[in-house]
Write a structure and sequence with these properties.
homodimer, TIM Barrel, 2 domains, globular
Chain lengths: 434, 434
């Protein structure tokens, strides 16, 4: 299938854009971007007058099935929220519920222009199947835990699940599925177990996902437990944050990094998943994004689970990231708005090891979003970066395309029966909100 | 006209809600709210299954015509943004342009569930006429300035405009129009002029709007200029912040208040217009909302002009206010989410002197909004406060009603030709973005 987008404002990436441009797609790839109309015949021509074409979003930190718990435990701080609300709710999960919870998140992400997410949870095969069916991409990881110094991956059913998942699904769906490894965090794991997981990850050239320094308590208690080592130092020492030969490592949250931690992350090409909304909502704090960027740390954006956000909107993360660092540093020019857009797009794609995604360029994957510039909140558009970061609304997405396939267009899901999903979700939700 | 809303989740105010309730409207007023269906016949019955009925939003700080300048001067700090971009653009305004800029803002507000706004600008009669036509409410004020110690209201054309505006429009449209007075700020006015404006305001029992301590520089320079008096002290001393007999005073921004300032504002029943998005975007800082509330200060929310936001979405202000103070204080329970909702609703109505608005109760004005709970981002709803504050999106409003009149419903504006507005706006916008 060949598609031509014409008469569009085109955001190529965070620093280049066309006021009136074209882009062509052939199969899964972008074959042209420019100001003139390319030669050739197209199966479909989309007139994009009054629309903005951008790269799609890559959400690099998520627990998709937790969408079932949206709004549970309203204004509680992290530890009480986990212990009193979330852990008991998770005890009542099963594969069917995880499938439905993940699909709720998938539907919300597709509607908002997200084509790929990094997930860390359990019953992962249910989530992978849901992603395969809907045409999205995922970097999924079975979350690993170890409670004793003697814990070992041998005979550990969670680790076996992770290995099985990788064997079954890694690179399935023309590479749309990537099976990553993950240990939950330093505070829920021991060194020996981490080393064994890291060895497996490196031997099989997989990516790694891990929570890092989300709260001040976590950061300080790690140092007390580990002879002064920070979570970053512990996770580098055990190999967890050392990327595989062609793989990546993603450190989620990083609210309480030291300057030294940032230098280590930059050196090791680790991507920080910045989750500003979740960090504010759970009162974890505000990550020092300006200093991370100054130190050369790679950064992408994530929503975290809907239970602590409470949305799966990458636009909202982008907008929050664009605003909050200006306010906290009291410098309106602290981070260019285009740089924040890059984090949500190419920054996330790189974190997921999807180096052929995230930019509208010839040869890249056709992961594209159309935005309605005629929406009353977007008039006028001075330039597209301000529009996304400060004016656009979640509902302004009119089309989401993943690998050249349209997943959503003008109010309709193309790969997902959202009415059936609502009907399936209802009886399950009754279990959590009765 | 009588209307019955049935099968709705009903947010009565920030602390009371019904999971399945009814509300009845007769003419401009709410005549019933409760769990059972009221007796009587209704001209229209709206089945609200899957919907949330809430009080509408009252935006208490705005410069609506500045919507023309949305996105102008992207990442600049306040003073450079004003001097290099905004003031030169304002020089090119005229009545026709103000009418169209205000109408763009009005359309955006109605779409997002806002029925009333407090405005401070010039060519105000154009804005009033646009508001009258569209069925919204406004508290409008001609922004006053005085540059010399000898400045006097006598013969001042701006003051004459303000007086004329009050004589022509105060309480027009069944009270929907209120003409407030405003001096721009301490740093753009002198004491004698302020005293004269305050005298007129008190003599005619009008409301007052003024910018207060938006930036640290403004706050500190005021003290240097005025023998240590803060902007709040200066504006109380000159009578500006002293409410009229039955009137109100609104102090916009208040990012840099001292504790003493807060006590004075509480004592004098002044409402602070908290504009979190504008304050972050212009890098002014984060107002200490938790301490204001502790001191008993009244607070409402405002968008400020679209030029420094860049949206006119009260939902976005509500959501930003709900998140940012948790993150900055690192206490997830610092302000209950329902309290933030009250600020956007009844808190704003009180600031505008609309004491019969902002709550869904028998006898109050029928200013109501319906939200789509079946939108994928709102499933599930744990309780309505979390839904508004953390999940809902701008596009989820399905109906906006002001004084019993439907202004927007299911994609259609009932009082505004939005296609014509877009066509009118285009040639004007070309003047600012060429």
């Amino acid at each position: 299938m060949t598609i031509l987008f014409k008469n569009a404002a085109v955001m190529i990436d965070g620093s280049r854009w066309l006021a009136n441009g074209c882009a062509a797609v052939d199969g899964t790839k972008i074959t042209y971007v420019g100001e003139s109309i390319p030669e050739g015949r197209f199966d479909r021509v989309i007139d994009c007058a009054g629309k903005l074409l951008t790269p799609a979003f890559y959400n690099i930190h998520c627990h998709s099935a937790m969408t079932l718990f949206r709004g549970l435990g309203g204004d509680l701080p992290l530890q009480r929220w986990l212990n009193e609300k979330i852990y008991p709710a998770e005890d009542r999960l099963n594969p069917e519920r995880v499938r439905i919870g993940s699909t709720l998140a998938i539907a919300e992400m597709i509607r908002g222009g997200t084509v790929s997410f990094s997930d860390m949870y359990f019953f992962c095969d249910e989530t992978v199947k849901a992603v395969l069916d809907t045409g999205m991409k995922v970097n999924i990881s079975r979350c690993l835990l170890s409670f004793s110094e003697d814990s070992t991956v041998k005979g550990d059913s969670r680790f076996d699940e992770a290995v099985e998942l990788a064997k079954t699904y890694h690179n399935a769906g023309d590479g749309r599925m990537k099976i990553d490894m993950s240990v939950h965090a330093e505070y829920t794991n021991k060194a020996r177990y981490c080393r064994e997981v890291a060895d497996y990850t490196h031997a099989h050239d997989l990516n790694m996902q891990v929570h890092v320094s989300e709260t001040l308590d976590e950061h300080e208690e790690c140092k007390a437990r580990n002879h002064g080592m920070t979570p970053v130092e512990f996770l580098l020492d055990t190999g967890i944050l050392v990327p595989s030969a062609t793989g990546t490592a993603t450190a989620a949250h990083c609210v309480w990094l030291s300057e030294g931690d940032m230098e280590l992350l930059a050196e090791n090409r680790v991507t920080v998943a910045h989750n500003p909304v979740s960090n504010l909502k759970l009162a974890s704090g505000v990550a020092n994004l300006p200093l991370m960027l100054k130190k050369g740390v790679r950064v992408g954006l994530g929503t975290d689970g809907a239970a602590s956000n409470n949305a799966q909107s990458m636009l909202r993360e982008l907008q929050t990231a664009a605003l909050i660092h200006k306010g906290v540093t009291r410098r309106a020019d602290i981070i260019p708005t285009g740089t924040i857009c890059d984090m949500a797009m190419s920054g996330g794609a790189i974190a997921q090891g999807r180096h052929d995604c995230g930019v509208i360029e010839e040869g890249k994957r056709a992961d594209l979003v159309l935005w309605d510039l005629d929406a009353i909140n977007n008039i006028p558009m001075a330039e597209p970066y301000s529009t996304l970061a400060y004016s656009a609304a979640y509902g302004d997405v009119t089309m989401t395309m993943c690998d050249g396939k349209i997943l959503y267009e003008n109010g309709e899901y193309k790969t997902l029966d959202v009415e059936r999903l609502r009907a399936e979700a209802k009886p399950i939700l009754a279990h959590y909100f009765d």
